[in-house]
């Protein structure tokens, strides 16, 4: 198919069948010849409709001048305009079906053509002008629009800049306000830390790469605005925080920032760590400038799970501190007690004082008898009262000189006092029965006296007895380095009889002689100091302590600190039960008015006022509590424990809190319980003291998992309630024997039962039968004892135990039997084991678990 288009038939066309007509405006007509097969063709009239184009602002075109140009290409239309006059299109050939001109005269045709062309040119020129005008207007409009946009953008930018400037000014002001006081402070302390870095000061100063690292993240502008607009609780608090930031916090921040800048690791500071007797892990970490978590980790490595709040003893703390590379200085926190004891006296103030004597010796050698005999024969004359009272000590008078006897026989009391740092005794009387001579406790007594540096006087007792052999005593004492005078030594000895009262005076004289040698002196004109001999809770009188004044004079009204307790002396009662106005050195006296019951062996001192008394006792009570807790926790945390943990892991303990009516009974109980202990189990006395059971005892028992034992004392209401709440058992006793028996039973319960094995018999395997579905069965003969079903069996090959287990079957012929006696044959099969061989021996045994007792 091909297209042909006539170019000159645009305005005027004459079709063969139609008359001359003007073409519809906006349409373009042409003919297209279509070719078909077999040489056929067909002319088709094609009318192209022109779209009318108008620009905004254009005047509507008059209908009479329709546009013949396509508006899309006004420029392209121009050549058409140019071409039109000089190249008039040739007349189209007359074809069948094509367009032909009407028959007009040539002149007319020419004139019409010119007229048409002239009008065409004008039309084109007008159109061109209109188009140019429209273009210009559009361009103007476009330029103005651009200008408007540009100015709007500039204005927006300017506004943004101004806003940013205002914002940064505001921030700078705020920062300056915040830093002003700090800068002032730091300027006086350490300007290096605070001053901004100056360049050109010798050392090159690196600019902070990312200053934001050290600064808290600033909120974005939007957030800031929002926050500023609305005051929330958070905002208010955070502002408060910023204001309340401490100087050291700022300094830490500064240092952290510096480190971050220089990429420096934290400098390890070696410190001298001051260690009190007990310390919490947290406190220790602080003193070492370490993190508590690191200390806890250290303990974990040692197999100890401890919390930062846990208390450890000084030994453990020292180990930790040294591990962390610090040095340690151990201090006693007893500075608070400074000046309480051992106030030096001027020599001219000292006056002779009576000796204090303790009687020691083996059981039944007559200590009590001797004390009683001396007491009854030599009461201090001229004193009030007269009814002998056992207050723990008494005084006798001989030749105008007084002698104080401590009325607690035996070395246990003596050592208990020494254990608390009190040395009450000046002279030890070693009682040795002349008929029994030196016995184990005699030797122990000698050791204790020697360790305390106390001179001994040997009282050879029971000389009235027919089998008495004083000389044997003397010579046996030689072996224990006690050289009596008659044997060439310096130790004084007296032969006495307590029951007959023989030589008691001589004994007293010897004591005085020894005292003279010792030249015992004290200053009576000062505040009293001494030691508690016995203390108890008296039903009517409250806490009562028998004290021995060692120096100074004790008077009613004095404020006394004794151990963990204090009190104002309400009354002083002597060993005859009479109230006295003063107690000079070496006088034993009962003190009434204490707030609590101190312990035997506690030292006492008179202080100036109640405040000081309270301060000291509060400190001591706290110390005692901490020690008790540390002792408990320290069972895990103490140095020795940490090292020998594995060795002692098998030991079972029965922790106890013991409260008794008097110190003596508590010590007796403690000693008895101590004796019960074995390598496997033992009673651990967490705390023992005189007095009723209180809430603090319950809490101590709770922390240490202990049971509470009350010996002749009861728990108060609060303690009972606390114990009930904590599920702690309180047991009351009035007989030591019962108490010890119960503890023994409890300890026995802690002993793991013993596995006892009994041999029953042996059987030799003669043949092995492999039975389908049943497995291997050993045909045996019982060679020794018997074999039992259900008993334990061992398979022994060449005297080596191959297998140990139980029997699956025990058959005699075809029957299952309970036992097979010696000499008979039987079939045996092991449970889950089949590797049996001819010649093996099956050993049969019974296992019993036997409960053990102490
Ligand atoms: N013949 C005689 N018997 C005495 C003498 N002294 C004590 N006894 C007797 O010895 C026994 C024990 O006397 P204690 O005074 O109880 O002895 P102890 O050393 O106090 O005994 P413990 O308190 O158990 O350590 C009593 O039966 C006394 O009567 C003495 O000088 N001569």
TrEMBL record:
Residues at which GTP binds: 361-368, 407-411, 461-464
Any one Pfam family match given in the protein's UniProt record, by short name: IF2_assoc
Domain Tr-type G: 352-519
Main location: cytoplasm
InterPro entries: EF-G-like_DII (IPR053905), EFTu-like_2 (IPR004161), IF2_assoc_dom_bac (IPR013575), IF2_II (IPR044145), IF2_N (IPR006847), P-loop_NTPase (IPR027417), Small_GTP-bd (IPR005225), T_Tr_GTP-bd_dom (IPR000795)
GO MF annotation, one: GTP binding
SUPFAM superfamilies per record: Initiation factor IF2/eIF5b, domain 3, P-loop containing nucleoside triphosphate hydrolases, Translation proteins
GO cellular component, one term: cytosol
Region Disordered, residue ranges: 1-40, 82-232
Signal peptide: none
Bias (Basic and acidic residues): 1-11, 105-178
Keywords recorded for this protein, A-Z: Cytoplasm, GTP-binding, Initiation factor, Nucleotide-binding, Protein biosynthesis
Family classification: Belongs to the TRAFAC class translation factor GTPase superfamily. Classic translation factor GTPase family. IF-2 subfamily.
Function noted in UniProt: One of the essential components for the initiation of protein synthesis. Protects formylmethionyl-tRNA from spontaneous hydrolysis and promotes its binding to the 30S ribosomal subunits. Also involved in the hydrolysis of GTP during the formation of the 70S ribosomal complex.
Name recorded for this polypeptide: Translation initiation factor IF-2
Organism the protein comes from: Mesorhizobium temperatum
UniProt lineage: Bacteria, Pseudomonadati, Pseudomonadota, Alphaproteobacteria, Hyphomicrobiales
């Amino acid at each position: 198919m091909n297209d042909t288009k006539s170019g000159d038939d645009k305005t005027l066309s004459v079709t063969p069948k139609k008359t001359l007509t003007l073409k519809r405006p906006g349409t373009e007509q042409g003919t297209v010849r279509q070719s078909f097969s077999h040489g056929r063709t067909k002319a088709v009239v094609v009318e192209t409709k022109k779209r009318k184009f108008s620009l905004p602002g254009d005047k509507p075109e008059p209908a009479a001048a329709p546009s013949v140009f396509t508006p899309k290409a006004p420029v392209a239309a121009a050549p058409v305009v140019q071409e039109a006059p000089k190249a008039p299109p040739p007349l189209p050939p007359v074809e069948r079906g094509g367009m032909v001109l009407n028959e007009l005269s040539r002149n007319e045709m020419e004139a019409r053509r010119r007229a048409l062309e002239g009008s065409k040119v004008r039309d084109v020129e007008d159109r061109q002008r209109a188009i140019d005008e429209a273009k210009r207007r559009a361009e103007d409009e476009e330029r103005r629009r651009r200008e408007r946009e540009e100015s709007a953008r500039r204005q927006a930018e300017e506004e943004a800049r101004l806003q940013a400037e205002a914002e940064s000014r505001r921030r700078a002001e705020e920062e300056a306000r915040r830093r002003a006081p700090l800068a002032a402070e730091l300027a006086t302390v350490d300007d290096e830390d605070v001053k901004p870095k100056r360049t050109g000061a010798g050392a090159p100063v690196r600019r902070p790469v990312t200053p934001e690292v050290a600064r808290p993240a600033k909120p974005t502008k939007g957030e800031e605005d929002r926050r500023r607009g609305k005051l929330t609780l958070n905002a208010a608090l955070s502002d408060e925080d910023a204001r309340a930031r401490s100087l050291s916090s700022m300094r830490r921040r500064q240092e952290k920032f510096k480190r971050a800048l220089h990429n420096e690791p934290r400098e390890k500071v070696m410190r001298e760590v001051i260690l009190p007797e007990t310390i919490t892990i947290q406190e220790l970490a602080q003193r070492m400038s370490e993190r508590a978590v690191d200390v806890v980790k250290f303990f974990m490595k040692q197999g100890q799970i401890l919390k930062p709040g846990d208390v450890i003893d000084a030994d453990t703390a020292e180990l930790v501190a040294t591990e962390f590379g610090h040095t340690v200085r151990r201090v006693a926190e007893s500075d608070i007690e400074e000046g309480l004891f051992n106030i030096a006296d001027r020599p001219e103030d000292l006056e002779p004082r009576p000796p204090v004597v303790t009687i020691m010796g083996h059981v039944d050698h007559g200590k009590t008898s001797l004390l009683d005999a001396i007491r009854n024969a030599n009461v201090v004359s001229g004193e009030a009262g007269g009814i002998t009272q056992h207050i723990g000590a008494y005084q006798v008078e001989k030749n105008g000189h007084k002698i104080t006897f401590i009325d607690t026989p035996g070395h246990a009391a003596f050592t208990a006092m020494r254990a608390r740092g009190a040395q009450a005794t000046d002279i030890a009387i070693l009682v040795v029965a002349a008929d029994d001579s030196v016995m184990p406790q005699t030797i122990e007594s000698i050791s204790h006296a020697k360790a305390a540096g106390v001179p001994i006087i040997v009282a050879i007792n029971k000389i009235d007895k027919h089998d008495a052999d004083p000389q044997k005593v003397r010579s046996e004492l030689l072996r224990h380095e006690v050289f009596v005078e008659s044997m060439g030594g310096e130790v004084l000895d007296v032969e006495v009889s307590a029951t007959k009262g023989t030589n008691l005076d001589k004994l007293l004289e010897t004591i005085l002689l020894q005292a003279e040698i010792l030249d015992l002196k004290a200053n009576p004109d000062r505040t009293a100091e001494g030691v508690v001999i016995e203390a108890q809770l008296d039903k009517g009188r409250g806490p009562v302590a028998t004290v021995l004044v060692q120096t100074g004079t004790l008077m009613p009204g004095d404020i006394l600190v004794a151990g963990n307790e204090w009190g104002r002396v309400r009354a002083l009662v002597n060993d005859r039960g009479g109230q006295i106005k003063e107690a000079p050195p070496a006088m034993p006296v009962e003190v009434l008015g204490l707030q609590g019951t101190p312990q035997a062996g506690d030292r006492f001192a008179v202080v100036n006022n109640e405040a000081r008394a309270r301060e000291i006792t509060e400190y001591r009570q706290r110390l005692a509590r901490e020690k008790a807790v540390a002792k408990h926790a320290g069972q895990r945390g103490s140095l020795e424990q940490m090292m020998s943990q594995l060795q002692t892991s098998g030991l079972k303990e029965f922790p106890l809190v013991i409260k008794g009516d008097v110190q003596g009974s508590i010590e007796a109980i403690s000693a008895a319980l101590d004796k019960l202990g074995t390598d496997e189990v033992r009673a651990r006395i967490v705390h023992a003291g005189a007095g009723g059971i209180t809430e603090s005892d319950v809490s101590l028992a709770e922390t240490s998992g202990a049971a509470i034992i009350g010996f002749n004392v009861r728990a108060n209401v609060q303690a009972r309630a606390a114990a009930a709440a904590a599920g702690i058992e309180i047991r009351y006793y009035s007989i030591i024997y019962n108490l010890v028996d119960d503890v023994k039973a409890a300890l026995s319960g802690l002993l793991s039962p013993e596995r006892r094995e009994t041999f029953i018999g042996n059987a030799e395997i003669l043949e092995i039968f492999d039975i389908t579905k049943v497995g291997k069965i050993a045909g045996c003969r019982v060679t020794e004892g018997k074999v039992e079903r259900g008993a334990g069996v061992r398979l022994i090959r060449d005297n080596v135990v191959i297998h140990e287990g139980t029997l699956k079957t025990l058959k005699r012929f075809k029957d299952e039997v309970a036992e097979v006696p010696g000499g008979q044959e039987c079939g045996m099969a092991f449970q889950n084991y089949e590797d049996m061989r001819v010649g093996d021996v099956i050993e049969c045994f019974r296992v019993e678990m036997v409960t053990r007792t102490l």
